[in-house]
Design a protein that fits this description.
alpha/beta, Isopropylmalate Dehydrogenase, binds nicotinamide-adenine-dinucleotide
């Protein structure tokens, strides 16, 4: 299998190096090496060449079995143009409509909620990834004056809403889960979110074995903190999903722990940690690589290499239990040492 690796900017470089180490070790242990092909697309590359990604860049990515990304974002590119082209562009061009963000607490010591354990924080968020307010339709009139009008449209199509809701139910059924919760703001956003309501009810009717509930997004944000144990699968739109998965990241121990996939089922998909490029930490051996490494496990899971995905998760969990972690989650190790600790745990079963 061929994987495009875009380490990107800032700590994206640091954490991707560790994910690559882990994936290389997996290939050696399981005897099915991945071809990991680095692509230089980043702020550095853009500043040196003026090119964010080549004209055939999206077609190039389609030739790979999957794409792995570290993070994109650099203060030297204030309009974030390269990140928009490389990351958002790939989401749109490859039609990666499912943003798959598992929220799984691996060690109860990492949970900021009092008295909550691993059983209380174990759910999956499916965020619609190609529509909503992120399509950048709108404009500014009389910009820079006191008469300025700024319009940012939210796009909801039947096709887009239908396919993400269907994906959430299909995932629940395939994984033996019985609860799906859809979150919208249909009480206030009475046009677009009425579509979510209608489609959700129609799709839910096809899954009698699954309890389909609905919460307004503000209530869901509150319940994620108060009672996260009630959720198995959450499905929501692009903006709300972006926000609630940061709450999810916090419930797991912080952004450094959160993994994600941007999927078009059956086609080339993209995997990345939820966090950004955290410029103040970049190149200092401080970034937590676990979110990136867990994202590589999601990639293997999606590619059907389930045993390897589980082995990575187990190795991360074992490293956490042993306190082999970076300082953001209470440890004393650096980025590279955490990567080494996880690789050691992956190799150990074979060596013993
Ligand atoms: N998917 C992406 O590539 C992505 C996502 C979010 C932000 N960004 C970009 O990243 C840049 C920085 O954004 P930001 O500061 O808002 O978000 P960020 O995720 O980079 O950092 C937010 C906070 O979390 C901490 N943090 C994040 N990841 C960590 C890790 N692996 N280990 C330890 N601590 C970690 C940072 O120290 C910081 O305090 C911006 O240019 C932004 O546009 C990119």
């Amino acid at each position: 299998m061929r994987i495009a690796v875009i380490a990107g900017d800032g700590i994206g470089q640091d954490v991707t190096a560790e994910a690559v180490k882990v994936l290389t070790a997996m290939g050696e242990v399981y005897g099915e090496p991945l071809e990991l092909e680095p692509l230089p697309w980043s702020a550095d590359h853009y500043l040196q060449t003026g090119v964010t990604l080549p004209p055939d860049g999206y077609d190039m990515l389609r030739q790979y079995d999957a794409v792995f990304v570290g993070a994109l974002g650099d203060p030297r590119v204030p309009d974030n143009r390269h990140a928009r082209d490389i990351l958002l562009g790939t989401r749109f061009e490859l039609d990666l409509y499912v943003n798959y963000r598992p929220v799984r607490l691996l060690d109860e010591r990492l949970c900021p909620l009092k008295g909550r354990g691993t059983a209380d924080v174990n759910f999956v968020v499916f965020r619609e990834n190609t529509e909503g307010v992120y399509v950048s339709i709108g404009g500014r009139f009389k910009a820079g004056t006191e008469d300025e009008v700024a319009i940012q449209e939210e796009i909801n199509t039947w096709k887009g809403v239908n396919r993400i809701i269907r994906h959430a139910f299909a995932y629940a059924k395939a994984h033996g889960l019985t609860k799906v919760c859809m979150a919208d703001k249909s009480n206030a956003m009475q046009q677009g979110h009425a579509l979510w309501q209608r489609v959700y009810k129609e799709v839910a009717a096809e899954y009698p074995g699954i309890t389909a509930t609905h919460q307004y997004i503000d209530a869901l944000a509150m319940f994620l903190v108060k009672d996260p144990g009630q959720y198995e699968v959450i499905v929501t739109n692009n903006l709300f999903g972006d926000i609630v998965t940061d709450i999810g990241g916090a419930l797991q121990g912080g952004l450094g722990m959160a993994a994600s996939g941007n999927l078009h089922p059956g086609k080339t998909s993209l995997f990345e940690p939820v966090h950004g490029s955290a410029p103040p930490l970049a190149g200092r051996n401080l970034a937590n690589p676990m979110g990136a490494i867990l994202s590589s496990a999601l990639m293997l899971e999606t590619l059907g290499r389930l045993d390897e995905a589980r082995a990575i998760e187990d190795a991360v969990k074992a490293a956490l239990m042993a306190g082999e972690t970076t300082t953001d989650i209470g440890g004393t190790l650096g980025t590279r040492e955490v990567g080494d600790a996880i690789v050691r745990r992956i190799r150990r079963p074979v060596e013993e």
